[in-house]
Amino acid sequence: MTFIRIILLNLFLFISLPVSALCSKGPDFVRTELDAWGVGLGLGTVNVSSLAIHPVGTPLGANIVTFANNPRYRGPESILWVCDIADKNNIFEIISTNGDDRNGGFFDLGAADGYPNYYSTLFSHVGLRLTHVNSGTVFTRQYQRIPMKNYGLSADGTKIFIRVKDFSPIRADLIRISSVSLFGKAPSDYCGKKYQITTGAYTCDQPNGYVSFCSPNSPATYCDSGDSAYDFNGWWKDNWMAINMGNATIPGANLVSRPTCVAKSVTPIVMFPTISITDLNNGQSAQSHFDVRVLCEGLSNSGTVQGMTALGLQVPYDSYLAAKQLNLVNASGGVSHLLPANYGQPGVAGGVGIRIANANSGVLRNFLGWYHCQSGTCLTGNNGGWYAVRDGATMVSSGGAHGISEYAVNFNAYLTRIAGQTVTAGKVDASAQVLVKVQ
């Protein structure tokens, strides 16, 4: 009899251990799963012009946001969840589109055009793809579980703090697609639009995607799995965070249809001559040249005010974050210097960056950063990195079958010392992308 009691006691202790490590809501927890409470994608003006200038697959806009951009949170250090240290390998982000809604993530319309995971939106012929930046995982209707590598620790090291800043940034990309979503074929259509809109503001606050926090065995952090179109039990647990194209606190997207320009080509590789640390410290720079070719419809307007078409060169997101650390990002979001990839890492030149100028005027230009729409406005103008698309351009050819002309915009690039920084020897390998967009 005594022998049996000992076995039962040991068994009880064994099965109770896994559930002793639990996650619970933190002191700064705020619900953001409801439609109007999500983080806005801040995509600004989305222009869809003729098929001649915007064929299927054409990029129409992109942005990267973090959950700290949501004003419902106090800031990036806000503690949303608290877990035992034993759970450090048992904490996850779960991502999915808003799969049950017709224009929130049910229809993968891009797949038929060869662009999978671009889901229908309220905008007709505009598909949205969401990407979990830290892992590179693309959102789908199927829930995907991604291990969390970032977290804070309590002073005694016994607790894990999951802060707003520990969740991955989210990238949004828009392209033109050939088809439209089908009314009545999705489980829900909360915005009640029988047809998608062809112009106007993104008035639907129904989310386009969700991120949730998950720790198995913790009742407060339900771990969804399966198809989000039909399974969404975690939504009722309040541990989801919504992502919205339309949002009242961050300017939502606005669809227009105006004649415009597009980037045709750019010099693929810009080579700089070798330059010494001494020369850089003495104010000298290494110089090179590149050009951008753009195609413009005959009625397009070149400028940086609303409704006109502008051109900018955008730095990669990692370069943008590094530039912010060096105070190279101005109040309008423009970036003065393009930094080498992996800036600060061994073998990479330090204290140097790349500046650009229009070769016609010689005036230095800002690069575009990220997150252009915030605090009630979308950032535009030269300070933000936008310049009239035909500023300093030379016409290469005019007219054509669709009345589209080609222009060349010539640039000078300078590898130069960053003021206040110490120059260190190393490799300089940097990239930027050309954006042409209706403001």
Automatic annotation (TrEMBL):
The keyword Glycoprotein does not apply. The keyword Signal applies. Residues 1-21 form the signal peptide. SUPFAM superfamilies: Bacterial adhesins. Pfam families: Fimbrial (PF00419). Keywords: Signal. Residues 257-439 form the Fimbrial-type adhesion domain. This is Fimbrial protein. It comes from Kosakonia calanthes.
